[in-house]
Amino acid sequence: MPSLSRPSTSATLRATVVLLALLLVAHAPMLLNDGLFMDDWLVLKPRPDFVIDIDFLLSAAGHPIFFSYDTFANWTGAPIAVMVALALAGILLGAMCLALTATRLGLLDRAEAVGFALIVWTYPGYQLWAGKANAVYVFSFGLLFTGAWLLTLAFTARGLRRVLLRVAAALVFLLSFALNSTIVLYAFMVLGLFVAIWRGGDAAHGFVRRTWLAAWRCALGYPELMVLPLVYWGTLNIWFKRIGAYAQHYGAHFPTLGELASGWKAFFITSYWDVVAGALKMTIEVPAPLGVAALLVGAALLLLRSETEPTTAKYTVAAPLLLAVVLFLALSFPYLVAGLRPSSLHFYESRHLLMFGLPLALILLGLKRWVEHAIGPKAAFAVVLGFGSVLSIGLLWDTYIFMQARTLKQEALANDLVSRAQPAATVFALDDGFVDYPSRHVPFGFAEVTGMLRLAWGNQPFVGFALRGERSSVLQDVELARTAPGSAFRHVDPSGPQATISFQPGPGAAPNWVLVRKYYACRLLARCDVSQFLHQLAEVTIKPGPIAGITPLDRPKADAMPSR
């Protein structure tokens, strides 16, 4: 590898402990959020008698690894706890292995490695850190860096230890492909392996021969790494083909130059521009979390000051910046091929941005190395990576607060529904008054509303949707989705009797930060009763009868689905 340095064990341990402690505090709100979001309701069971059918993950969506994790989580009887543990394991393991790999290869000093990993694993542009089903993606991202660490150890190992490390690395890489776009980063890691072999070659051979020999040795010396993506994609396309809506969703095509330009612009705005705008807005409206984050990062800086080393080579400034641009273009390219775009307005549409903390961390690293020539490495580390970490953690907490508030609103609705008898209806429109409340809120999705109805009143073929979040033809759309090949919605019936649920802010409603602070006081400090707190959060009324503005579904009674 480029430079297999062996840093002091005690210093490395101290830096690793600091990193893990920072991440545990940054992601602590995840431990308190036991809610399900969006498609979580389709694959996880909030209680043992909640009926779901996740076979569509195998028969239609082409996610065998995803299916395995969800099946295991449901089998334990505590799927939410399992998924939270999986996400935290991915965060801690991935960050630790990223930092260890970078320092062992001599790419970063220990302080830089901690700051770099912290930015990557607190990146706030990805808003689904608290999502339960998406914990598989977070874990897969962490496994990718675990595989890189194992490969780094295997590079200098010998004998049986080398064989075992390489087998373990290959298995870990294979599991990391559950997040398909990690294959892009995997390609960069294989390229890094090639560079390491090239640098170890004989300079007397000349550039062309040396490059050819390095490529040959890389392919022959690590055949398992060359064939791994082919085996994975071949397996998916032979035994787990995508069908129906999933095949259409991932309709691959080579984008035009115009599509690439507009797509990269959309990714840049969502992944970075909107993050900066969110940081400025938070600084003005809710500065307290940034102050807490500053104290947290400041304490870490004091522990890491002795680990900061000056960088002298000119390429150490330019290389991270150039790699950030290349990595940004490469990471977004698979989504552009599939015709997908992210959005910061809806948290679920940020799911494509999990890995975009890497280009951001590279940019901050390059800026830090540029600034240190003027103010010194320690001050540059504090100013650039320290300030970046404060903003990243503060915005991450803001996202967690939003997601926790969403969970509380769901629980308030579900608790109210379970306390009353089910009306003579199975199709419900949710008139969500929190959309107009002066605090960030996104209308509940179809899976969320339907899931809350089934949680409250049992496993019946309910259909639930947010009235202001759907078109007038929503029932026809549901019928098409229900009857499509490999559908995840076969358990619903959009042709049943209708009712409208009015869900309005109650006397206990408050802006997200205030609401969640009160909830934490109830849950952690026992300052109030949580059930009473939820009861005060919203006022719910139900009006049976046709839903205003929604076109009813006309289907022969013989085709109607039986109740479950």
UniProtKB/TrEMBL annotation:
The keyword Secreted does not apply. Keywords: Membrane, Transmembrane, Transmembrane helix. It comes from the Bacteria. Coiled coil: none annotated. The keyword Transmembrane applies. This is Bll5437 protein. It comes from Bradyrhizobium diazoefficiens (strain JCM 10833 / BCRC 13528 / IAM 13628 / NBRC 14792 / USDA 110). The chain crosses the membrane at residues 12-32, 80-101, 135-155, 167-200, 220-240, 286-304, 316-338, 350-367, 379-397.
